[in-house]
Amino acid sequence: MGRHRGTPEDEPARSAPRDRRDSRAARRRRRRGRAVTALAAALAVVVGLGITGWYVLAGRGSCGGEDVALDVAASPEIAPALREVATAFNADNPGVDGRCVVVEVRGAESANMTYGITGSGPAMGDTGSDVWIPDSSLWSNLVKEDGGDAVFTDTGTSVASSPLVLARPASADGAGEDADEEAPSWDSLVPTSAPTAGDTGTDVGLVDPVRSSAGLATLALVAGAIGQEQEEENGPELVAALQALQRGVAPDEEAAFGALTEEGESARVLVISEQAAWRYNSEHERSPARVGYPAGGTYALDYPYIDRSTDPVVSRAADLFRERLTRDAAQEVITAHGFRTPDGTADPDVLDPAEGFQRRTPEDLPVPSTQNVQRLTQAWNRLKLDSRLLTVVDVSGSMLEEVPGTGMNRMQVTTTAAVEGLNLFPEDAEHGLWRFSVGINNDLDYEELLPVRELTAEVDGQTHKDALETTLTRLQPVPDGDTGLYDTYLAAYRQMSRTYKPDRVNSILMLTDGNNDDPDSIALEELLTTLEEESSTVRPIPVFTIAFGPDIDPEPLERIAEVTGGAAYTTEDATEIGDIFLQAFSQRLEPTAGQGADASGG
């Protein structure tokens, strides 16, 4: 039925006299004349508005009444393509119940929308919408898990896809020489063991996983590749991988793109989506990136279509727009913006093979489970908390003993491992250094060598990190020194308690090769009681002890670890200290770490 209905006088009166019919015909001719004049005026307006205005008026002639507004919140990079499709849709859509549907597409960060719906993280601005198109099902799955009573219908439709790729500057040494050169696999992309002196591994960049699907998927892909994708697996290999990734994290995509503008960085790679790489190259024609595809497959962003409306009419409108997006014409618009179709088909005229883009669809790895994503996000956040660590090194006489097969004594092996361990920490971590034996500082068993301060702090013309490395390498054992372990534990604990910083992970690392042999020190039971009384679950200071040597009694060290929420590790091989550092770090990934849990290790 049209927008207007005829009036009774528009219909012929079959029984009317001829003169009345003639009179009516004359009136109709006059009305037609006025209508032609009005139409001519309308055409003049249309011509003034342009062809687009005529197209809209003509297309919307089949619907009327109050428009059905459809608010679509889409990931910012796909929003421009969707607006193009929406413009054509608004012009010629058949409408719902005779009412025209007007689609408005706006860019909305997927993480921001997720946190706004679930209340599980920081969100800014309006996070409501009728339709939501995030860049990945990673986010929509989190909403399903944590969204509570939020209205949320996953239509099962993907409107585009874009696999994760490894991009690096085309100007980097060797980049682009061999288009068929195989890119690294996920398990070889980052180190999974403690760094050693002179390590020059791949410098990997990614966008903060808390805000980015590409970053979040990278965590899951790396964890899966090294066999630690399950909920109970937060081992040292994962710690090493996460720490390596944190060294190259960028707060947002624009900052991450900065890595691609640097020249001569042959080892630098950036994990981003294929469409992001295309977008970067479109904006940086003089310094394009070279794209590679991870060996063994990759994860693809899938842009799911989510209906969030509570109004059945709006939901029907949403379904109309969803169907439009699946048509060939709409998919051509989307692929012209650097995306692939949902089944992975790319436009080779857009994704240029000369820049490394491949026509064939990369092997698609499955979407990580929601539980795994949540665990890895929590691990990432716990591990990136700024550290505040006091390292206490044993300088008793037994540290002079040679470590078989190394050509070094225990002190040299210990300090070498400690120096390498510094590379596990970000630059804004805070570190301090003590040494201990018996009576080495007047009547005290311990002595502060360097206070706890940020590694990048400038002191006497050098950074604090450089000062730590120099001081560690120059440490010498006291030839006749005994091991004043218990007094040192208590003094270190109280020092860190007095200077506690709630925005950091405050902890103590004790490196020793012996048992307490100071007859004048505090007794073990009194030490444990005192630590228990002075500790606090809201101000935790976990104590980690790494002890090596054949005569170590691990029980006292494990009891101290239990009281403080730390961990104790014993080994007869001092060369294992670097790997034990990573095991100690893995304690930070546990929700109960630092809160009195039994985290002792052997």
UniProtKB/TrEMBL annotation:
Residues 1-25 have a biased composition (Basic and acidic residues). It holds the Pfam family SBP_bac_11. The chain crosses the membrane at residues 36-57. Signal peptide: none annotated. It comes from the Bacteria. Keywords: Membrane, Transmembrane, Transmembrane helix. InterPro entries: VWF_A, vWFA_dom_sf. Residues 175-184 have a biased composition (Acidic residues). Residues 1-31, 169-189 are annotated as: Disordered. Residues 388-585 form the VWFA domain. This is Substrate-binding and VWA domain-containing protein. The lineage of its organism: Bacteria, Bacillati, Actinomycetota, Actinomycetes, Streptosporangiales.
